[in-house]
Amino acid sequence: MSPTDNSTPPPNSVPNTESAKETSLLEKAITSAPIVLTVLATILAGMSSGEMTRAQYSRSLATQQQSKASDQWAFYQAKRIRATSQSDTAELLQSMTGAQAFDRPMLENAMEALQHNASTAPTQPQTNPTADTPVAAQKGYDSWTSLRARPDVQRGIECLANGNIPAQKVEGNEKQLQVVIEQIDQHVGDEKVDELAVSLPADVLLGAVVRAERNAAEFQKLFSEPLKGIDALTGSAKEAIRVAKSLDRHHDHTAALTPQADDLDHALTIARLRLNAARQDTEARFNLAIAQLYEVQVHKSGAEAERHRQRSATFFYGMLLAQGGVTVATFALALRKHSFLWGIATAAGLLAVSIGVYAYLL
Q1: DSSP 103
Q2: Phi first, then psi: what are they for 117, rounded to 5°?
Q3: What is the C-alpha to C-alpha distance for residues 197 and 332, in angstroms, rounded to an integer?
Q4: With b meaning 16 or more CB within 10 Å and e meaning fewer, what string describes 157-180?
Q5: So what's the pLDDT on residue 89?
């Protein structure tokens, strides 16, 4: 071996391993960019679709809540009209008949007077042998005597005499919720109401709806006992009135029972009309409270639907940008690799972005 064989190679012939590693990492990054961007675009597309689904759900929920609110508004209006009609009828009947006020002593005195006068009527009818007899009047009075000791009848008489409905403790709304209801009543505009409604915690609003419905249900339950007593009382009084008028009619009005029966009939009818008017007015207020809460739910659901729609649009724009990045990265690789397949991928990416932009501008 000659001495020249042991000579060292020139410096420029030593491979630069660090530069090779950097080139390899750069190549991997460039090659991986379309894949990473594609994954990102897929994630953003899924998030956009999910937000749109939530927006559609919230909008559908708002429609259902609006339907419930409309039902409660209809109940409110119908009961208010009924209350006004019954109150006006009571006032008209009062002015036409001049009936005395209904109370417990008046009722008991009238029933006793009818029974006493009917029992003293002639025993033989003058015009109709099949007419009611004083014995029937006595049976009716005995039935009334046993009936008036019932607690529900006592409550019914008290309600009729005072014209008041049973007292009830009503649960109110929280201050934040009450502010939203006041804003709706003042017609300040949907945007401001939506902003306030969407900030309400869902459990607060749902709890208020449950309380309002419970208030209405408890009133129905509370009023059921005196209402049952009023129905029994009215049936007994109407029967006594019928027997008295029958005796008087078939005895040529010699017993003069009809005016007494009419006085009781008018007083009882007017008392029932006034109590029913108060009852309908109270129920209408319960329906109004429920309707207002459903209106708040409509605004909250509508605002949430709009928020989800905007988020869906934002994710969609992000997906378009990611897809555009995929297209640019693919085009760069196509130029770098001189690959026909990469060129096809670039064309497909450009077409996808164009379709997305066209669909957005429609």
Answers
A1: -
A2: -70, -35
A3: 50
A4: bebbbebebbeeeeeebeeebeeb
A5: 94
